[in-house]
Amino acid sequence: MNGLVIYYKMAAARQVESLNENFLTCSICTEGYKDPCTLTCGHTFCKGCLGKFLKTRQDAIRAKSIPCPYCRQKTGVPRPDRPVEEWVKQIKPSFLIQGLLDTLACRGNTDHDTENRCHPCQDLGDIQSAKSYCQDCDVPLCERCVKMHASLPGTSNHVIADLGGTVKVTRRQRCSEHNEVMDFCCRDCNRAICPKCCIIYHRRCDSVVTIQSIMSEMRSVLTCNRGLITQSFHDMDRSLQQHRSQIDEISHNKDKIKSQIRQASQKAMDVIKQKEKELLEELNEMTEKQSGQLRGRIKSGEIDMQMYQQHIEYITHVLKSGSETDMFDIYQMCQSGAIKEATDRDVTFTDSVRDSKLIFVSEIDERKLHKDVKLGRLQRNVCEVMDTELGKIHSGTFDDMCRPVLHKTVGIKVDGDREQPDPYDVTVLVVDGEETLVVTDRNNTCLKSFYTKDNKSRHSKLDLASNPRSVTRLRDNQVAVSFWSHNEIVIVRVTPDLVLQSRVTTKKKYRCLTDLSPSKLAAGCWRPPCVDIMDVSGRVMRSVSTFNTRKNLICKPCLLCATDRGDILVSDDGSHSVYCITPEDDVAFTYTPTGERRLREPQGITTTSTGHILVTDCWAHKVILLTPAGEFVRDLLTSQDGLQHPHGLMFCDCKLYVVEYNGGAVKVFNCSIPQ
């Protein structure tokens, strides 16, 4: 039994030590909290450490606020007119942290035999086991000292708790300046104070009450906050479970794509093997044909050689016999040309072998083989694989050195237009396998779609209540539209005909939109200048304008674009700049060129399949190419390419769609790597 008690004591000691290291340690002094206080951001520090830190921050003194040493969020003080040394004292103490410290200290004292003794008796040299604990003096007491405590006027009102646990140990906080119990609360300064603080520092405050009088209110607030925190806990747990599920899906998808890559590799090898087999069969056929011809010639030559041998033997025999008659007969044969005709046959054996020699001409450039042959590429939602034709591998990759070629021009004027079309923004969807252009027309206050069906060009038109400005794709068959001067966002279904699905009333007039997910949007506003993150119901989740620099960089956001990393690209006409905002509301980069490359009127903005950034400069009549990090590469399109007043643009499947508001058309350029 004693061993079990010791085990539990050691386990409890380890838990206390772990809690102290992970949750009850000040991040400034790296020691246990001493007089802890919590800032508005939720981070807790020792008051002394926070005071020393504040003295080093002159910018905070000028701003009349206390910056958090951890996250830099600023905390206002109730009385900034007081000396700086008193600012930290105005911050309410962390009763939760102090309660944990006191509870752990009490438990630590009861866990050790050397401290589980009556302190007054121990000071007098006597050893007595402590049965109770004075919460005001913070010391364990034996039964005799408890009686003495109760008999003395100075300690008669102290709260005595049973160490056995029958009374809950709750130490009352003491004032660090006057060492008095802080039984009062200044509601104006929102801090606990002692009676002397009431007289000295808070006599002019309007609402000073006892803490006991607001216990029901505090319990209600704490219960409500506990419910909110519990809900956040469950929400975070569900989110973590979802993330874990996504990791499992990613792992499963990885195995699937790995199998696809291996299949593509095997497919390429099968095609190569088939080509090898065909070439070898063709080689066998051609060489067999040549060899057969040569074997026929050899057989004919052997017969001729036998005939030549017979002629040689007959002439030799006649010459030896000396017979005049035989010699005259052979002589007549020679004179008549019979023998000469047989010996003068044109034998072209050597020539025929030389002329019919086969050679192999390789159609593979070995110098480029290692970089030209691709099995496929990875991209979001799709994995392209190698074409079945050996040597022709297609991938929709943007070539940053290519010169775009005009593919076609789509005029947006349709029957029923009352005014000359004034397009501003464009997006591209693939609906039922058909490429569909969706364009906003400001002059005719409508949204238009253009597509091909049954080999015929078709269009659809949706009249709107106000002049539309920006359009962005939400899903494969759904877009969202913002307006010039209308507190509304409309959701439109694309079939590819346009069907009004819903109207979303907003508190601000948003001039531009981009989709962050099918249920979340980023929207740019001019008054006030900001970029809001909202859901499709119009509820603003957060607003971005000043960033961490506290300087309002956003002036007049024209168009937005979301990157694959979740960043938001902003073309800003007011500052003649391009911004990249991270999900943490920081500025990843700012592109504000000067001199000849100064942006005159940045409008449309989009990204390519390689992450490059394209920006239109309307009054400069050009499309600018930037790296994914926001560095200038070159002018991709200019007025020399026939470009005039470009506004919105969209990159999709190696095609660049550029809206020309002055010409009332959408120009489509090819930007792929030449095959």
Overview of this protein structure:
The protein has three domains: 2-217, Herpes Virus-1; 258-355; 405-670, Neuraminidase, CATH 2.120.10. Helices cover 32% and strands 29% of the residues. The chain has a four-stranded antiparallel sheet, with no helix packed on it. α1 (2-22) packs antiparallel against α5.
CATH superfamily of the largest domain, called what?
Answer: TolB, C-terminal domain
Estimate what percentage of residues fall within beta strands.
25-35%
Q: Briefly note the structural class of the backbone.
A: alpha+beta
Let me know the average pLDDT.
80
Topology (SSEs and partners):
Blueprint: H1 2-22, E1 36-38, E2 44-46, H2 47-55, H3 58-63, E3 65-67, E4 74-76, H4 87-90, H5 95-111, H6 119-123, E5 132-134, E6 139-141, H7 143-151, E7 160-162, E8 184-186, E9 191-193, H8 195-200, E10 208-210, H9 215-321, H10 324-336, H11 338-343, H12 349-355, H13 369-372, E11 376-379, E12 382-385, E13 405-411, E14 423-431, E15 434-441, E16 446-453, E17 456-463, E18 468-475, E19 478-483, E20 488-494, E21 498-505, E22 510-517, E23 520-526, E24 529-535, E25 540-544, E26 557-562, E27 568-572, E28 577-581, E29 587-591, E30 602-607, E31 613-617, E32 622-626, E33 632-637, E34 646-652, E35 655-660, E36 665-670
Antiparallel strand pairs: 1-2, 3-4, 5-6, 5-7, 8-9, 8-10, 11-12, 13-36, 14-15, 15-16, 16-17, 18-19, 19-20, 20-21, 22-23, 23-24, 24-25, 26-27, 27-28, 28-29, 30-31, 31-32, 32-33, 34-35, 35-36
Helix pairs in contact: 1-5
